[in-house]
């Protein structure tokens, strides 16, 4: 730092949950922690520099009857999902499982398949009103996967030269299909791991083409 060679910086978003309130501090702009080369104006205070480390602070009353969950995430998530999309997606996944690690992994995967190329991290905290696994939701998810698998097999069967058919072509054909009960906020991108699995089973000789799908966003 003294020699001027330390130029790194970062951001932060954090939350403190008390029995009655939720406190959120957001300093996620312009790498507000560090970046000392932008904080060297001697006639200005710490929060009056070109880049300020002063966070925005929000306070919300707890509502155990309605509060479902809290999400803290970085740009790689918000680049491809807005607040409503992410909340709807997480809500729908909590109806399938109470494994929070599995849910957050699905968020990361879905954002990757939606085309995010920025850093991705997420923290998910559930509250008493969070959705619980629901047999009806699980049934609809199973029906969705059966419909996707059936359509993939139909598409593969229609190909005259299966040796020239690859995973990217499959994704391009699936985009125009209508499937019931796609995850809200996630869409077909949320099912890409399942699509990959079925493709590998149906076209084992073309399994190496799955990596092509990472360059194609299933919006």
TrEMBL record:
Stored Pfam families: PP2C, PP2C_C
Keyword annotations of the record: Hydrolase, Magnesium, Manganese, Metal-binding
Domain PPM-type phosphatase: 1-127
Cofactor(s) the protein requires to work: Mn(2+); Mg(2+)
GO molecular-function term, one example from the UniProt record: protein serine/threonine phosphatase activity
Gene3D superfamilies: Phosphatase 2C, C-terminal domain suprefamily, PPM-type phosphatase domain
Cited InterPro entries: PP2C (IPR015655), PP2C_C (IPR012911), PP2C_C_sf (IPR036580), PPM-type-like_dom_sf (IPR036457), PPM-type_phosphatase-like_dom (IPR001932)
PROSITE patterns from the UniProt entry: PPM_2
CDD domains per UniProt: PP2Cc
Family: Belongs to the PP2C family.
Annotated protein name in UniProt: Protein phosphatase 1A
């Amino acid at each position: 730092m003294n020699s001027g060679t330390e130029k790194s910086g970062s951001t932060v978003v954090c939350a403190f949950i008390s029995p009655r309130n939720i406190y959120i501090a957001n300093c996620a702009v312009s790498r507000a922690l560090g970046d000392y080369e932008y904080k060297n104006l001697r006639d200005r205070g710490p929060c009056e520099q070109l880049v300020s480390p002063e966070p925005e602070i929000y306070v919300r009353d707890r509502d155990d009857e309605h509060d479902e969950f809290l999400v803290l995430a970085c740009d790689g998530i918000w680049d491809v999902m807005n607040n409503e999309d992410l909340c709807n997606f997480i809500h729908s996944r909590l109806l399938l499982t109470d494994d929070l690690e599995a849910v957050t992994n699905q968020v990361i995967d879905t954002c990757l398949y939606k085309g995010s190329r920025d850093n991705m991290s997420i923290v998910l905290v559930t509250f008493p009103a969070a959705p619980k696994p629901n047999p009806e939701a699980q049934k609809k998810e199973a029906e969705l996967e059966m419909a996707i698998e059936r359509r993939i097999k139909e598409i593969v069967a229609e190909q005259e030269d299966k040796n020239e058919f690859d995973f990217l072509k499959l994704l391009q054909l699936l985009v125009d299909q209508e499937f019931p009960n796609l995850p809200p906020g996630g869409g077909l991108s949320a099912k890409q791991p399942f699509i990959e699995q079925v493709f590998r089973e149906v076209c084992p000789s073309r399994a190496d083409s799955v990596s092509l799908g990472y360059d194609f966003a299933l919006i």
